[in-house]
Amino acid sequence: MRKGSPVAEARLALEDGTVFLGEAFGAPGETVGEVIFNTSMTGYQEILTDPSYKGQIVAMTYPLIGNTGVNREDAESARPQAEAFVVRDLSPIPSNWRQEEGLPEWLARHRGVGIQGVDTRRLTGLLREKGFLKGVVSSAELDPKRLVEKARAWEGLSGRDWVAQVTCAAPHPGPAPKQKRFKVAAIDCGMKANIGRLLADSGCETTIYPASTAAATILKEKPDGLFVSNGPGDPEAVPYVIETVRNCLGKLPIFGICLGHQIVGLALGGRTFKLKFGHHGGNHPVLDLKTNQVEITAQNHGFAVDPDSLPADAVEVTHLNLNDRTCEGLRHKKWPLFSVQYHPEAAPGPHDAGHLFDRFVRMMETGEAP
């Protein structure tokens, strides 16, 4: 905290009965969510503003957070999306030539809840042992027993439609390309700002549609390709998006990432399942099964596509997570369609997978399977 500022107590309580003591920062209050840890060393502003984190309480494994402040350019959406932010040490003096505001002030202005002074090493070990845990961060209620009860009473992420809380309200244009080559329709399930920028860099004039948009509306505009974005929560809880993608199969080149990858898998007749730990951070190794090359990727998801549920005569798994061997990518053998579980747009994270936007462009050029 900044020197001289008053310090309020706060608690992080987990459904297993564990309670962490800490100090509040940001806005006072109480919030509930699924507690996850993120292994990125930098990029906390992009993480907090990524709509994929809706419904989650994010704990950073890197101990010192807030030292670069925040700025408008690094926001992936208009406001913090994570339910709460958990850190070991909050930098009292942010210092960076790009900073416009300190992290505590920015979080408070957006009514975001934070807690510092938490033993995040112990918390990470606990989550690695037990998997996802429901939790509460509060500076309003400090009684451990009541907080644990609130954590246990929360319904959780599974089965709930979180996309409806983060999608856009109406169709709108994405960033304009310097030279238009293709017209793309993007389904906004919680689309990050950098995706729009990279599509524009690839020569795509993009119209971003609410997640509830029907396939007929999209097809009527005759786009050259369909992009299905990242987003929060359980893919099976958004059947309307699955139906839209299913009705576009074979009619448009399709590229899906993260939640969009899971939706593509479901639209193709596959199933998804909830991971014990999930993948959250900027250092996840993924093997491209075609090239045998490894990419270091940015990831944030708690669900995965079951590769054995996909029709083997039509769909091929293209990428594999080297930590737990889960499916990280797929393609259709006949249609111009592919998807990846990770975030090729990074923000934050490595840029190893940025070439996938070029692959999407090639599909629109040729109309052939990738």
Topology of this protein?
Blueprint: E1 9-14, E2 19-26, E3 30-38, H1 44-49, E4 56-60, E5 64-65, E6 84-86, E7 89-90, H2 103-109, E8 113-116, H3 120-130, E9 133-138, H4 144-153, E10 172-173, E11 182-188, H5 193-201, E12 204-210, H6 215-220, E13 225-228, H7 239-246, E14 254-257, H8 259-267, E15 271-288, E16 294-306, E17 315-321, E18 327-332, E19 337-340, H9 356-366
Helix pairs in contact: 7-8
At CATH level 3, the topology of the largest domain is Rossmann fold
State the CATH superfamily name of the largest domain: Class I glutamine amidotransferase (GATase) domain
Query: Residue share in helices?
Result: 10-25%
Q: CATH first level of the largest domain: which class?
A: Alpha Beta
Q: How is the biggest beta sheet arranged?
A: 10 strands, mixed
